[in-house]
Amino acid sequence: MGKPLRLGIAGLGTVGASVVRIVQSNLSSLTLRAGRPVTITAVSARDRKRDRGINVDGFAWYDDPVAMVADPNVDVVIELIGGASGAAEAVVRAALAAGKPVITANKALLARHGVELARLAEAAGLSIGFEAAVAGGIPVIKTLKESLAGNTVTGIVGILNGTCNYILTRMEKEQLSFETCLAEAQRLGYAEADPTFDVGGFDTAHKLAILTSLAFGTEIDADAIYVEGITSISLEDIKAADELGYRIKLLGVARRTDSGIEARVNPAMVPKKSVVAQTSGVLNAVAFDGDALGEVVLVGPGAGGSATASSVIADIVDAARGHRTPVFGLPVNELMLYQKAEIQAHKGGYYVRLSVYDRPGAFAGIAKSMADRDISLESIVQHRRSNDDEAPGHTGAPQPVVLITYATRETEIRAALEAIEAAGHIAEKPTLIRIESL
Amino acid sequence: MGKPLRLGIAGLGTVGASVVRIVQSNLSSLTLRAGRPVTITAVSARDRKRDRGINVDGFAWYDDPVAMVADPNVDVVIELIGGASGAAEAVVRAALAAGKPVITANKALLARHGVELARLAEAAGLSIGFEAAVAGGIPVIKTLKESLAGNTVTGIVGILNGTCNYILTRMEKEQLSFETCLAEAQRLGYAEADPTFDVGGFDTAHKLAILTSLAFGTEIDADAIYVEGITSISLEDIKAADELGYRIKLLGVARRTDSGIEARVNPAMVPKKSVVAQTSGVLNAVAFDGDALGEVVLVGPGAGGSATASSVIADIVDAARGHRTPVFGLPVNELMLYQKAEIQAHKGGYYVRLSVYDRPGAFAGIAKSMADRDISLESIVQHRRSNDDEAPGHTGAPQPVVLITYATRETEIRAALEAIEAAGHIAEKPTLIRIESL
Q1: B144 and B99 within one domain
Q2: Shortest CB distance from B138 goes to which of A296, A299, A306?
Q3: Which residues contact B215 (CB under 8 A, 6 or more apart)?
Q4: Do B32 and A150 touch (CB under 8 A)?
Q5: B275 — contact with chain A (CB < 8 Å)?
Q6: Which residue of B has its CA nearest to A145?
Q7: Closest to A132 measured CA to CA, from A7, A379, A313
């Protein structure tokens, strides 16, 4: 049995408190799994007095997390403060400078400064564990870095934000509007008072940036990711999706294409029978495609103190055993520059919802705009609005029309929609949702 | 960059040939991921001349795999011969005796001799990698041993045999009999000429034995597993399951209970909306329940040369990096003796299909037999056979009746069925299928 691994934990929110709880209540089993005792020696948070349901009396307490890093009784620094800069960044830099391995759940920090931090870690021969940074308790990082080592990864598709998935699931199951479900999510604590980071797709983008780097061996570039959120998804779209055999999910998608890496966050139509479509509520799901393996999908809790802490513990055990792999799977100097494929180059099927003036020639005009750009339609759904049930002939009023296209280029479909709009056939901006065949 | 890791591969079937192919075509990426070059130096198989789609000229060839182990240019021995004893066992023992780490896909060997081999490996400070032994390309072993290290695992539920899942999926989708689907599986190469090992549930039992040991920290005991196969599943059961919102899947289930570890392989009713129920065809799925994490489910290809080889490669990379964890997660001496919970102690819901004589009092008698043992019925489905559609009153002919019980003990439901049989109410042996609530 080796000497104890002594942990310093910066940040005692729900995840930090759960880590303390798990380490304390599983001492003997952790010792056996880690091959040596694991013990917490120091912690840091803003308010010592706050009731966290844990006893911190046995730990050295630091108001300043950077000071904690310097504690000679801390071997490994666990950063659970959060945020792309500020205290979290200072703690991680201080740890690496002091020759101490880092474990973090901080997706924003990695998405922003990941490559530089990896360079510092590598130069110092240290590890940065971040299983908890993506998809909470689901072991997506270890799977990508270690289990898929023999694969050329060709694609990743993931539901990476529980808040959005909760809202979309509620909208579908209860036939409620986006606004109603968002308010409910806020009431339940699943969404922040300012929900932009989640519903705007930015949280998903941070996580996707990390997965993309691991999957394709590229430097992280969070800004290269195309981002659409779910705020424009209407109940009408949810209903139409259902009718056509799809569900709408906010996905992070990354794929190798001829023109580079296509990485995007967008609401997508996914076939109902896929595992991703079946992933409901606050759960996350990540599907990996590898050339040797084929597709493997992991489903589980993507957030929550104790699930996320479970991932932190896995990193602690790896650190205790001295297991170390390059931060992003490859040595930093081998990471390729990110070759971005523009969203305009995206090729796939599309769901298009139009509000079409019910006038002679309108539909023919729309069909021609599509045909002119070689866009083939797989299906067309038109329901007359209920108050028009008995209206004979053309009423002139806008009618919802849903089109599903076969695979086409984003440039083509956008050009077709512009032409349709310019011709005055539609009453509102068209809704465009990419179809993910999975 | 360290010195090369030199591999000796015993067994060049579909998995072995795929390992050779992947190592040869990913040399540079594997070197980066492993931190050192990985190279194949020796191979062994029965027939050197056989066309395997790979070139073996560059490797030392051994007709005798045990002789290959002794080759001084072999650092790690990869055993892909298969079988619980014979050559496979000899190779693994020779490797451990020679101080060489082992990687194997051999579930039968581990289920039978796992504890003893782990003891030998531990004494010699060697690893035995066996990611490929369970669920093919899905990283279930690493997830259990490493990612769930901070959890007390409470349960495992898995679809671990692609042959059975293929047959059950076909039966449901095409409304065909077990025999027809088995013949089809044999024609497609998914099932052996003698399918007993698969359809009898024994293959699933070997895999479950390994997972159970990892999950609960117990010595492997394949004989402690209760096994029922799928040969008695009729199309009638599949249809009734569908009507009641379930699918029938052959599951490996292991749970901690008050009376010990309940480990069993049986066809089970699973709710249609669960990920496990959605896993169709030759795919596998494994759901883990951990106290910190909650439930995580992994879905992917459970067989096939290249998917399984992907898991072998993951073990090779771990070996190259010198990453070593105890074979079954804990040091051998810390593994507990397996405390078996008898199947009679199982508690859960049941699906019961009876062929009931359509006579006065029959149904009342059945209901009383259930009530006498405090068994509550959740639903009762009775469809008159179509040729009896217009028969008024009791015909005396046997009619299918399906009952779904609330949670009850196996002893109680079995006693009730014995009483029903003894009372002469039913024309055939009852069909009993456990319900897995997931």
Answers
A1: no
A2: A296
A3: B144, B153, B156, B254, B288
A4: no
A5: yes
A6: B33
A7: A313
Cβ atoms of A42 and A68 within 8 Å: the answer is yes
Q: Are A163 and A195 in contact (CB under 8 A)?
A: yes
Residue A153 and residue A100 share a domain? no
Active-site residue (options: A100, A145, A207, A340):
A207
Helices and strands (H, E) in chain B, number of each type: 15, 18
pLDDT score for A69:
98
B386 has a pLDDT exceeding 70: no
Q: Are A126 and A101 in contact (CB under 8 A)?
A: yes
Q: Using CB atoms, which residue from A22, A146, A293 is nearest to B301?
A: A293
Q: What is the CATH number of the domain that holds A369?
A: 3.30.70.260
ipTM of the complex: 0.95
Indicate whether A195 and A48 sit together in one domain: no
Q: Is the pLDDT of residue B310 over 70?
A: yes
Which residues in chain A have their CB less than 8 angstroms from residue B326's CB? Answer: 32, 35
Last-in-domain residue among A313, A344, A375: A344
The domain of A265 spans 146-301+337-344
Is A207 one of the annotated active-site residues of the chain?
A: yes
| DSSP state for residue B218 in the 8-state scheme | B
CA dihedral B235, B241, B246, B248 (to 10 degrees): -40
Residue with tokens 């249809």: B239
Q: Report whether pLDDT(B2) > 60.
A: yes
DSSP type of residue B146: I
Residues contacting residue A48 through CB under 8 Å, at least 6 positions apart: A56, A61, A63
**CB neighbourhood size of A239 (10 A):** 16
Q: Alpha-carbon torsion B417, B418, B424, B427, what sign? A: positive
Pull the structure tokens for residue A155: 């694609």
Q: CA-CA distance, A79 to A66, in Å (whole number)?
A: 10
B160 touches chain A (CB under 8 A): no
Per-residue pLDDT, A119: 98
Q: For residue B233, what are the β-bridge partners?
A: none
Residue A161 placed within a domain:
yes
**3-state SS assignment for residue A321:** coil
Asked whether residue A311 is assigned to any structural domain, the reply reads: no
With contact defined as beta carbons under 8 Å apart, do B319 and B5 qualify?
yes
Mutate to test the interface with A, among B130, B146, B276, B336 (most CBs of A within 10 A): B146
- Other CB atoms within 10 A of residue A47 CB: 9
Statement to judge: residues B156 and B18 lie in one domain:
no
pLDDT tens column, A330-372? 999 999 999 999 999 999 999 999 999 999 999 999 999 999 9
The CATH number given to whatever domain includes residue B162 is: 3.30.360.10
B278 and B168 in a common domain: yes
Tokens 């008995």 correspond to what residue?
A: A390
Tell me, yes or no, whether B146 and B176 share the same domain. yes
Q: What is the pLDDT of residue B396?
A: 86
CA–CA min distance A36, chain B (Å): 12
Which residues on A lie below 8 Å from B312 (Cβ)? 150
How many domains does chain A divide into?
3
Name the token pair of A355. Answer: 């509000």
For helices B178-187 and B162-174, give the axis angle rounded to 10 degrees.
130
**Residues B292 and B176 grouped into a single domain:** yes
Q: How far is Cα B31 from Cα B257, in angstroms, rounded to an integer?
A: 46
The DSSP symbol for B346 reads -
Domain boundary among B344, B376, B401: B344
**Does residue A132 lie in a domain region?**
no
Q: Is residue B319 part of a domain?
A: no
Q: B313 and A294: CB-CB below 8 Å?
A: no
Report the relative pairing of strands B377-382 and B398-405 from DSSP bridges: antiparallel
B34 touches chain A (CB under 8 A): yes
Neighbour tally for B125: CB within 10 Å: 9
- Do B145 and B273 share a domain, yes or no? yes
- Strand, helix or coil at A358? coil
Residue A224 reports pLDDT greater than 90: yes
